[in-house]
Amino acid sequence: TPVVAVVGRPNVGKSSLVNRVLGRREAVVEDVPGVTRDRVAYDASWLGRPFTLVDTGGWETDAEGMAASVARQAEYAAQAADVVLFVVDATVGVTDADAAVTRVLRSTRRPVVLAANKVDGAAQEAEAMELWNLGVGEPIAVSALHGRGTGDLLDAVAAHFPDREEEAGERASGEEGPRRIALLGRPNVGKSSLLNRLAGEDRVVVDPTAGTTRDAVDELIELGGITWKFIDTAGIRRRFRRLQGADYYATVRTSSALERAEVAVVLMDVSEPLAEQDIRVVEQVMESGRAMVLAFNKWDTLDEDRRYYLEKEIDRQLSRVSWAPRVNISARTGRHMEKLVPAIETGLASWDARIPTGRLNSWLKELVAATPPPVRGGRQPKILFATQADVRPPHFVLFTTGFLEDNYRRFIERRLREDFGFEGSPIKVSMRIRE
Ligand code: GDP
Questions:
Q1: Is residue 39 part of a domain?
Q2: CB atoms within 10 A of CB 346
Q3: ipTM value of the model?
Q4: Which of 220, 288, 298, 299 pairs with 88 at a CA distance of 20 to 30 A?
Q5: 312 is in an annotated binding site
């Protein structure tokens, strides 16, 4: 996976930005042995693209003066990275150390994305623009504290990643072969029971996948006349999770299964209250950008009372994924097994979907005419046009003359779902401001 190194002088907010990018992923930390002892790499992903985020925050030594040591840190990072994320404090402006980092980065010729941090509001936007003076390209205004702009920042970073097609394991457009499903859920929700029911012993074909986690084994299972690839079923059947450190490995395992999957079936156990661990798995899937189906298992145990509370729990805890189709099943009795495949197919179709630019723009024109973006700083931002920049999952980019409030972007996202569906797939709406 591509490596992104975060560099910058102390106190510009590197660590906050790293945490912001990782969300709750801090659990998956690995120490990369190598040149510098303090280097820490994290698994991260953006729109389904996994990458490694290297935090250089711990590298500073001041023996040789701050500017020099920060510049050296940037040099190491640049050597190791595919993309350098250079963080500058917009409220302070360019310091000697920033200038020193810039010189080093120029000489390494790595792609650099410039983050103008601490742009917490409109007041700092002009300050951010001063950072054009560094000569490393467009400063992207972000607030690591509030999360503002980080999506645009990651878009800019991801633009330097190698093409999806070049990366092994990713489905290129038109790619053949069975589609890949990750069956996920905390221990004991019934994953292996479901797998056994779906597979039936004689139809199981073990498919050892080269170049993946050493003991990851996928299975090809025929359902509804179609062959599907279930990812890392060895991990499900082997019950590795009951060993020590199970939680940690479960998280890592889930994220590596997600990397190779296209759609996740998240299994939950309705005989117990929804647990924090269930929500964590759902969040991991959301972050991965994969299609998602929620399967509520052990439905045979449900009584009226529990059913009432379950609905409340779902409303309260899973409202952010109201777009995911739900199936109520029992791996034990076989209840509603036939609903699983159509739900998976729905999710994948949405994940693959592309709205033609013409149709998208006539839709948008009508929407904006009825509900224009809110005036901001006395100016009415105009949306010039929109395009669907990517599929798997669908990603829409709005080209505008000014900043659109997050509320308005969310409004557009909601309306996209209302009018075009996308059931079972995450979608993303971002913006590019043109003067
Ligand atoms: P895993 O850890 O997610 O793979 O869960 P298992 O498949 O090992 O199942 C955990 C327990 O739940 C076992 O005792 C299963 O028999 C039971 N179980 C699985 N599915 C169902 C179901 O649909 N109904 C009931 N009542 N029990 C189930």
A1: yes
A2: 20
A3: 0.95
A4: 288
A5: no
- Note if the pTM is more than 0.90: no
| Token pair for 32 | 């990369």
Q: DSSP secondary-structure letter at 167?
A: S
Sign of the CA dihedral running 398, 404, 410, 412: negative
Look up the CATH number of the domain holding residue 362.
Answer: 3.30.300.20
Check pocket membership of 192 for ligand 1, CB cut-off 6 A.
yes
Is residue 424 domain-shared with residue 298, that is, in the same domain? Answer: no
Contact 42, 22 (CB under 8 A): yes
Residue 169 lies in a domain: no
Tell me the pLDDT tens digit for each residue of 294-328.
999 999 999 999 999 999 999 999 999 999 999 99
Q: Is 190 in the pocket of ligand 1 (CB under 6 A)?
A: yes
Q: What is the pLDDT of residues 25-59, one digit of tens each?
A: 443 333 333 333 334 567 788 888 888 787 776 55
Does residue 86 contact residue 104 with C-beta atoms inside 8 Å?
no
Pair 82, 4: CB distance under 8 Å: yes
Q: Do 311 and 363 share a domain, yes or no?
A: no
Half-sphere exposure of 6 (CA within 13 A, CB side): 34
